[in-house]
Amino acid sequence: MDLSYFSGHEAEIAGYLWEHVQITLITLAIATAIAVPIGTIVARVPLLYAPVMAILGAIYTIPSLALLALLVPYFGFGLVPAAAALVAYAQFILVRNVAVGIRGVDPTIVDAARGMGMGSWRILFQIEYPLALPVILAGLRIAAVATIAIATVAAIDDVPDLGRMLFDGVNESNPSEILAGVIVVSALAIVVDIILRVVDRRLPATRARIG
Amino acid sequence: MNREELWKRTPFTRRRMLRAGMVAAIAISVAAYGSTSSASGLKASGPTINVADKQFTESYLVADMYQDLLQAHGIPTQRHSFGTSDLAQAAILKGTIDLYPEYTGTGLTDILKLPAISNASKAYNKVKTLYQKKFHLTWLAQSPFNDTNGVGLTKATADKYHIKTMSQLAKASSNLTFVGLAECKARPDCLAGMQKVYHVKFKKFIPTSSTAINYQYLLSGRADASEVFTTDPQIAHDNLVVPTDNLGLFPADHVAPVIRDSALKAYPQIKSILNKLAPLLTTTTMRQLNAKVDIGHQDHATVAKNFLKSHGLLK
Amino acid sequence: MPAIAFEGVTKVFGDRAAREGRPAAVRDVTLEVEQGELIVLLGPSGCGKTTMMRMVNRLIEPTSGSIYVDGQEIHQVPATQLRRHIGYVIQQVGLFPHMTVAANVATVPRLLGWDKKRIEARVDELLEMVALPPGDFRKRYPRQLSGGQQQRVGIARAMAADPAVLLMDEPFGAIDAITRRDLQNQLIAIQQRISKTIIFVTHDTEEALRLADRIAVMRDGQVLQYDRPFNILTDPANDFVAALLNTTDVLQILSLVRVDTLMQNHAPSDGLLTIDAGQNARTALSMLVANGADELAVTDHGKPVGVITLSAILHEAARRGVPTEAGA
Description:
The structure holds 3 protein chains of 3 kinds.
Chain A lengths: L9 H35 L4 H13 L2 H12 L3 H25 L3 H9 L4 H31 L12 H9 L3 H28 L1 H7 L1
Helix pairs in contact in A: 1-4, 1-6, 2-4, 3-4, 4-6, 5-6, 6-8, 7-8
Chain B lengths: L2 H6 L2 H27 L11 E5 L3 H16 L4 E5 L3 H10 L4 E5 H8 L8 H16 L1 E3 L9 E6 H7 L4 H7 L4 E5 L9 H8 L5 E5 L2 H10 L4 E5 L3 H5 L2 E2 L13 E6 H6 L2 H9 L5 H12 L5 H11 L5
Parallel strand pairs in B: 1-2, 6-7, 6-8
Antiparallel strand pairs in B: 3-10, 4-10, 5-8, 5-9
Helix pairs in contact in B: 3-13, 3-15, 5-6
Chain C lengths: L3 E8 L4 H4 L6 E8 L4 E5 L6 H8 L7 E6 L2 E2 L5 H5 L2 E5 L10 H5 L1 H5 L4 H14 L4 H4 L9 H13 L5 E5 L7 H18 L2 E6 L2 H7 L2 E6 L2 E6 L1 H6 L4 H6 L5 H5 L19 E3 L4 H11 L3 E6 L2 E7 H11 L8
Parallel strand pairs in C: 3-8, 3-9, 6-7, 7-8, 11-12
Antiparallel strand pairs in C: 1-2, 1-4, 4-5, 9-10, 12-13
Helix pairs in contact in C: 6-8
């Protein structure tokens, strides 16, 4: 394992890593903010599930290069269209998990809540979302890892993230750089996955289920 | 407040705190993003010139030189980077970037979708005229080095079959295996063109996915000839022979700065600044500089700066 | 004023188009529940008893007719507000698994904006009432409780805001027979202490007879008979009611007859087995048969107040029972 690229390039790698972290955070925040309402609506109206998932699935299959090119007239270049594309891809995973999570909430619990005089919004935020959260978070974990991976492609669109190390390594025939890039991307994905697992363990719904 | 009490708060409050934390993290990210992207400039006055590269060694080196020279003359710059010609072209048309190094051959075939021209000045003039008319983009002076397709042979193979020109290669081709990028097979400036113009009949064509692999095949002897680009560092480094293109098949592909008319108007001095650089980039020079980065693993920004310093263009 | 009043209440499920020609789940029911009464809606699956109950707190909206709680038609206030003043207990319990027992019980008081101290005190009070020591159970999560314990929390939760009315939909249906009896006893004890108005739905005849002040026997959306258990057993309205409640089982009738209504008011002889005055005649009969005795001493709070004889019980049974043909 040729780890020689790490010495002497610490600042460069740190820069790419920070860019990668930023684009991932921004993407996941926006993607979640969009997916939760969509997933909630889809959960409430079962008829919408199939068509919505079909559309999101179709978007997911658009190759990232093509999608970035498509977004140029609307978002230009750089971080914004890259994040927009990543947000679009993440919907396929997140919306499904939001819908499944909410639908997985025991309907008798919701019935009890209604019968006790809780209004619909209160039930949604105090009962359904907390109970759906483990499933939603599992979706977020998957979406996070996928985003970190796909975000490497953004390097070709003026986003100086870890993907640059992979592309440069290939172009300059520098296997050490490629390896370094792969290691850092993987490490980032692993760290994010671990963090989200820890968060999951702390959720009220999870603690109530398994202590 | 200890952790137990903290967790006893209503779920609503906890979620609000989580949300607030996330918003803060994103806000910091976005704010920091703005500041990390700008280049360190000298005294900035006037509009910033956005310089781009196309994410390969040669392009990095030339774009670095453009940027260094502009900065040295007090023009503020910011650097961008695009992995494909299409993106770079779209960016310069949109105004996201103002200047980047482009190749006359690429401009003709990939952007203007016209047939390639092997005569260097003819190619340059055509692309310069059309770019001005269609895109309001100016081509400044081109450099002597030609980064175009070619065939590479080890000295041993070249000597064995007495190959100095492409026609001589064609005569010996039935004894030779040829390795190249998969796309080479059908390209008029690669295998398909070689078959048409030189009547090559290689024993076997091995398609690959990267130039690195091509060189591996060539140097290990698994292939006798390889698709090469004429400024590849391996040619100098491994003492390879590139037969002359006697029938003028391979397109002229010389680099020149392509700049938006509006940017040139803002800083007319850019023309003279970059035209001073142009003649210095010869084929030999480019092969050497590429070798320093690809094989010597030196940092391209440093290599570019040292080159400019050694030629007195930078202090 | 009755606590709950149904006036010509009908429910047909489905939208207007679907309703054409469809049988009603509840058909033109008029019925009153007095304050502090525990009435049982009894009937087979599909008779409309659950639908009836769920119309009181508007989880199901009536198709026609009116329902009054404490004199006010239930559509005069928003549904959520109505529900916060009606206790609701369901068979599956429906405890919120991500909240502690204390948080569960505190749900409606929190909705009503009680202050923290008042809520805390109330939670402790209720957990005591359902025999779950607060110190032990406040911080537990539902998954850590047995089925019976969970339903006790469910009852505590339903009573938290001290509603005048409780709706209970087969609350002990999912619980084992032994624990069920225990919970029934607890409910009886609670009811004796604080007299809530309760609508209790069940298909279990024995449970109905044990708990009800009055039973509404339902079938196909209609109330066939609405009376005290004893009256239904001794005078069923039709064959269906008779069969459902097994009215020919005279021992069952005896179980509704208090010992002190059959006793003779003279001092008992020495050496007799004793039975409390509040016990029922079936239990007395059982004791007499098991011990081969003719009479038992009746006590009230431990003091002898009379004597009950085997012949008195048999006489009562003969009086109430339905004679069967010889050889049947």
